[in-house]
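Trying the structure run again after the queue cleared.
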Amino acid sequence: MNKWKIYGVGLACMSLTFGGCKLPTLVTKNENKSVPGSYTGSADSTNTANIKWRDFFGDSYLNALIDTALNNNQELNIVKQEIEISRNEVRARKGEYLPFVGLRGGAGVDKVARYTNIGAMEATTEIKPGKEMPDPLPDYAFGAYANWEVDIWHKLRNAKKAAVQRYLSSIEGRNFMVTHLVAEIANSYYELLVLDNQLDIINKNIDIQTNALEIMKLQKEATRVTELAVRRFEAQVLKTRSLQYDIKQRIIEAENRINFLVGRFPQHVARATRDIEELVPKTIQSGLPSQLLANRPDIRQAELDLSATKLDVKVARARFYPSLGITAGVGYQAFNPKFLLNTPESMMYNIAGDLAAPLVNRNAIKAAYLNANAKQVQAAYNYERTILRGYIEVANQLSRIGNLEKSFDLKEKQVAALQRSVNISNDLFKSARADYMEVLLTQRDALEARFELVETRMQQMNAMVNIYQALGGGWQ
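Done. Tokens:
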């Protein structure tokens, strides 16, 4: 009989062990990390992304705004709390593969009914006088207990490693958000400087056009021009003055955009007073495309997410295999408190092992396993997409920088030519060799060209900030 019992236990263990070994077939996906060797054929590895943002911008007003935003920006602070949540998840996962130990105490009373099997046995049991069992029966107990799931297949350890990867991923997500925050503040700051220049241009043009209007009035008194010329010049002055308020409104909106990012209510934004010629974009060194994998936080975040999903697949696979649990307890129990600490009479202890594995109706486990694999495939595609997006962003900004530089040079020459045209048209008008319309149109063209030149400079500054962000700079 003992021999058959041993065989039965062995057969049960084998069925538990091998019954869960047949796993569903998976469609796997290996990520592709390859990128082109260079952006423009250059093999220079010098990379602007390695420069800290404080040194890259070099503007004390802008650096102060960024410092304030990194402390006060609400969205960034929300992300910081998500990092804390991920850190606590790591702590929880770590505790799962360690033994759980606790203390337990209790007191109760038990009255067994007479006409039950236990009650009938107690009634018919021969008890010596003075040694009757109390009725109802009190129960007092206290002791320590422990339970532990032995991590045979590293299911719990892999779950903890996956939580660590997600914690690191949340840090990279925060770094990626910092790059966006720094870039957005810098772009808004340079927009403010350009708007200041545009407002200054308008004020100067108002003075020039007002002087031209006075000249027209004198010319009308001398019967050299008609009332129509005076009204046309007056209308141009009024139009230019109206542009002031459009620029002022844009300045208010740009300031409040910065105020929102730095987490404060609307107020004046302190900034440098610079002429357009002083706003010169920095020279950018793009380095090698392979450096994106290390410099861009979003690519590192996608890589960590992929690593976590691979561990999730291992955790889901381990659920097909037997799990071994061990429970134990030790303490004291008695029906009378005065006997509670009697040793060894009132002492109790237990220890047990439990081996279990799914055999029938494993659909939920299979579904979780297949879902984990599908998420791993998703993460692999997302990783490849993030690398591709990063490369294309850099390529686009490099092209944009080159084209804007050529455009700015041509517009600068256009402004110089139109400025000379204004002077020439004024001289010709004074000598009656040009009519007032030529003077008016030339002034209008010069103002528009100057505005376009300033707008192009702002686009250059934005391209400088965007390429710095695209290369992975701004979070250090």
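Residues 99-120+133-150+323-356 form a domain with the Outer membrane efflux proteins (OEP) fold (CATH 2.20.200.10). Worth checking whether this holds up in the mutant runs.
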